[in-house]
Design brief:
This protein is about 45% helix and about 20% strand. It has helices at about 1-30, 100-130, 135-140, 150, 170-180, 200-210, 235, 255-265, 305, 315-340, 355-360, 370-390, 395-410, 415-445; strands spanning about 35-55, 60-75, 130-135, 145, 160-165, 185-190, 190-195, 215-220, 225-230, 245-250, 250, 270-275, 280-285, 295-300, 310-315. The strands form 5 sheets. Strands 9, 10, 11, 12, 13 and 14 form a 6-stranded antiparallel β-sheet that branches. The longest helix has about 30 residues, at about 415-445. The chain is elongated, with a radius of gyration of 28 Å.
C-alpha cells in the first residue's frame, strides 16, 4: 500500500506541474494582451471544487477530478459553454475583441510552455547526469533472447538487430518503438543477414505479449544452472545447481540462443551435455523433451551485467542546451510515431492506452527523482502534442479555426463555433471512455 501511495503522489505532482504551467501559458498570454481571465483551475471541478478563492477579477481553484485543468477566458466559447456573456456586445477586454494573431498566441501559449518545460528539464538532466542509455550493440554481443510475442513476429533467439528500415538504432530504449513502426528489420542470424517484415499482425502480437514480460533481453555469456524442475530430465540425469553448460555432444555452446537451437534439432533424443562443475569438465547424458527443453532454469542477467551495457555521455552546461532541445524534438517525433499506431485498428494498439487508473504504475514505488523528471518531460511533450491536434475543444482546434480566419479574412460564426465545441467535447469524452475502459479491463485482468 505504501508503494502505491508513493506512485500516486508522484503522478499527482507530475500532473499538477504540467497542468499548472500549461494553463499559466494561456493565462500569461491573455494577461499580456489585456484579456480578462475569469477562472484558473488546477484539475476539473464538475459540481464542486476542493478550493476556490477570487483574487481580483479571477477565481483560482483546485478541482476534484485530476484529468487536466483550464482557464476560462472572457468572451471565448470553451468547454464551459457559457453563452450568456456572448449575448452582450463585445467588450475591449474580451477574447473575441482581440485581433486574430493575439487570439492565436493565447491559444498556443500553453503548448509552447509544455515544450519549453521539456527542454528545460532535459537540459538540466543532461548537464547534471549526462545522457544515460543501454547500448543495443553491447546488449546483443552474444545475441538477444526474445519473448514469444517477438518470435511470433519473426525473431529468433540469438538474433542480432542490425538495422530498422535501413537505419541503425544505438539505443535499446527506443528500439522497440522503432520495430513497431518499421516495415523491415534486418537481423544477423547464424552469420547471415536475414530480413524480418513487420506487419499489423506482428505488431499486435508484440503489443499483446508485452504485458510486463519484456520483449527481448541480452544473452548472458555463460549458461549457469540456477534451478531444476522437479522430476525434470536434467534433475534425473544428475545436473546440479551452478553447473556451467559449455557444449552438447562435444560441440561448443556459447550462449543460450545456441543451446536452444541445438536442442530443437534433438527433440525426444538423448544428448551428452558438456558441463563444468567445480572447475572440472564432465559429461552428462540427458533426454531432450518433445518441447526441446531439459527442465532447468538458468541464471539471468544481474544488475552488474546491466550496468556494463550502459553508455553515458557527459555534457557541459552550454552543450546541454542544444542537446536538450534535440532530445525534446526527438521525443516529439517518437510521440507522433506512437500516435500513428493508435489509429491503425488492426494493431489493436489503442488497447494499450493507459489512463489515470493505471498511469501511476509508470513511477517507481520508491521515490526516484531522475525517473520522475524524465517522465514529466516526456509527458509534457505528449500533452503538447495532444493539445496541438486539430480537434475542437482542444487548443489545436481553436488555433485551426483562428488560422482559417486569418487566411480567409472571415470570422466563424458563434453558432458554428458552438457546434464545433460540442462535437469536440463528444470526441474527447468518447476517447476518455476508451481510456477508462482500458484501465478497468486491465485492472480486472490484473495485467
Amino acid at each position: 500500500m505504501k508503494e502505491i501511495f508513493i506512485q500516486v503522489v508522484q503522478l499527482i505532482l507530475c500532473l499538477s506541474i504540467l497542468v499548472t504551467l500549461h494553463e499559466l501559458g494561456h493565462y500569461w498570454a491573455a494577461k499580456y494582451f489585456k484579456t480578462r481571465v475569469e477562472k484558473f483551475m488546477l484539475f476539473f471541478d464538475p459540481g464542486f471544487a476542493i478550493f476556490k478563492k477570487k483574487i481580483g477579477e479571477t477565481v483560482y481553484g483546485i478541482g476534484w477530478l485530476p484529468l487536466g485543468g483550464y482557464v476560462k477566458i472572457a468572451g471565448m466559447i470553451d468547454e464551459s459553454m457559457d453563452k450568456e456573456q456572448l449575448k452582450k456586445p463585445p467588450q475591449p477586454w474580451e477574447f473575441r475583441s482581440k485581433p486574430a494573431w493575439q487570439r492565436l498566441i493565447i491559444m498556443l501559449a500553453g503548448i509552447f510552455v509544455n515544450f519549453i518545460l521539456a527542454w528545460l528539464i532535459y537540459t538540466v538532466m543532461l548537464a547534471v547526469n549526462g545522457d544515460n542509455y543501454i547500448s543495443i550493440d553491447k546488449m546483443q554481443e552474444n545475441g538477444l533472447e526474445f519473448s514469444e510475442a517477438m518470435k511470433h513476429a519473426g525473431f529468433q533467439d540469438g538474433d542480432k538487430i542490425l538495422t530498422v528500415d535501413g537505419k541503425h538504432q544505438p539505443r535499446a530504449d527506443w528500439m522497440v518503438v522503432d520495430i513497431l513502426l518499421a516495415e523491415q528489420v534486418m537481423v544477423e542470424r547464424n552469420g547471415q543477414e536475414v530480413p524480418i517484415n513487420i506487419n499489423d499482425g506482428g505488431i499486435k502480437a508484440i503489443l499483446n505479449g508485452a504485458k510486463g514480460q519484456g520483449l527481448y533481453m541480452p544473452s548472458p555469456k555463460e549458461i549457469i544452472v540456477d534451478s531444476l524442475i522437479p522430476n525434470g530430465n536434467a534433475l534425473k540425469a544428475g545436473v546440479q545447481k551452478n553447473d556451467r553448460i559449455i557444449g552438447i555432444n562435444n560441440m561448443a555452446i556459447n550462449n543460450f540462443g545456441e543451446l536452444k537451437k541445438t536442442l530443437d534439432t534433438h527433440k525426444n533424443d538423448s544428448i551428452r551435455l558438456d558441463i563444468v562443475r567445480n572447475g572440472e569438465k564432465i559429461e552428462v547424458a540427458v533426454l531432450v523433451s518433445d518441447s526441446a527443453s531439459l527442465g532447468f532454469g538458468r541464471q539471468g542477467v544481474d544488475e552488474s551485467f546491466l550496468k556494463g551495457l550502459q553508455v553515458t555521455r557527459e555534457y557541459g552546461v552550454l552543450e546541454a542546451i542544444p542537446a536538450g532541445l534535440n532530445k525534446t524534438f526527438t521525443n516529439l517525433a517518437y510521440q507522433i510515431k506512437q500516435f500513428k499506431l493508435l489509429i491503425r485498428p488492426k494493431t489493436e494498439a489503442y488497447k494499450q492506452i493507459s489512463g489515470p487508473l493505471r498511469l501511476f504504475k509508470v513511477f517507481d514505488p520508491e521515490w526516484d527523482w531522475t525517473r520522475f523528471w524524465n517522465f514529466t518531460a516526456m509527458f509534457s511533450i505528449w500533452l503538447a502534442f495532444l493539445n496541438l491536434l486539430p480537434i475542437p475543444a482542444l487548443d489545436g482546434g481553436h488555433a485551426m479555426f483562428t488560422i482559417i480566419e486569418m487566411i480567409t479574412g472571415r470570422k466563424m460564426s458563434e453558432k458554428t463555433m458552438e457546434i464545433a465545441q460540442i462535437t469536440g467535447f463528444v470526441i474527447l469524452m468518447s476517447l476518455m471512455a476508451l481510456v477508462f475502459g482500458n484501465d478497468i479491463i486491465h485492472l480486472i485482468k490484473g495485467t
